[in-house]
Amino acid sequence: MDEEVVLQEEDLEGSWTLLSWLASCLMVFGGALPYVPQYQEIQRSSNTEGFSTRVCLVLLIANILRIFFWIGKQFELTLLLQSVVMILTMFAMLHLCCTVQNTNRVSTKQHRLSDLDFRYFWKWSAFEDYLLFCFGFTVLCAVVTLLLLDSAVFVEMLGSLAVMFEAMLGLPQLLQNFHNHSTKGMSVKMVLLWTAGDVFKTTYFVMNESPAQFWVCGSVQILIDVAILLQVLLYSQDTRVKLG
Question: Which SMART domains has this protein been placed in (predicted)?
């Protein structure tokens, strides 16, 4: 009888370990998955107008800051790996966008980081400029972190900045919908995917007792996702009223 109980406990432990491993893999690669169809769509249409590279900017800053937060306060290795995957994913998106835009460009005028023209910030023609900016930002973060690593307040502030940037990812879309009084041209499936991912990762953060910044960030993201979905319902009703 005792042997059966032990075997059952071992089976349960093995099942829990497998589920935990699968959840970790989903956390590492899940954030990058929504950008796969967008990458394929840009390749197919040779058009980047439907994708804002500002998304890449927000996610690159958020994940670079998160890596330095990890240096100051070691949390789950899963979240560190997730940041590395997201950074590589954003670089892949930027590289594709630059390639397509340069192919379609009629004018020979190019905008470079070295021009120091703020009007074209993050609208550069060369992929190398995006790499250079991120390298400079990373070096700046490394120097400041090295100097203030012993400060618990600084480390917590670093984590808060990282999750704040990530939490604001959906805000530009929310404001654009409000300004246009329409959600036309926005992928509802993408927002639903964001919502599902944000619910999953927030639950993961709570269950794994991650730093408070992470589950607060996830909660804010869920609220923004829900607000965008409410806009879809509101503006679709307004359209039906106008047509009716």
Answer: CTNS
More confident residue, 177 or 157: 157
Enter the pTM of the model.
Answer: 0.77
Distance CA 82, CA 32 (A): 9
Exposure of 16 in the CB half-sphere (CA atoms within 13 A) = 6
CATH number where 232 lies:
1.20.1280.290
Parent domain of 122:
26-150
- Classify residue 183: in a domain, yes or no: yes
Positions of E strands within 68-156: none
Map the chain to HEC letters.
Answer: CHHHHHHHHHHHHHHHHHHHHHHHHHHHHHCCCCHHHHHHHHHHHCCCCCCCCHHHHHHHHHHHHHHHHHHHCCCCHHHHHHHHHHHHHHHHHHHHHHHHHHHHCCCCCCCCHHHCCHHHCCCCCCHHHHHHHHHHHHHHHHHHHHHHCCCHHHHHHHHHHHHHHHHHHHHHHHHHHHHHCCCCCCCHHHHHHHHHHHHHHHHHHHHCCCCHHHHHHHHHHHHHHHHHHHHHHHHHHHHHHHHC
Q: Does residue 13 fall inside a structural domain?
A: no
Residue where a domain terminates, one of 125, 150, 175: 150
Confidence of residue 75 (pLDDT cuts 50, 70, 90): confident
Question: Do 64 and 116 fall within a single domain?
Answer: yes
Say which residues have a Cβ less than 8 Å from residue 220's Cβ, sequence separation at least 6: 167
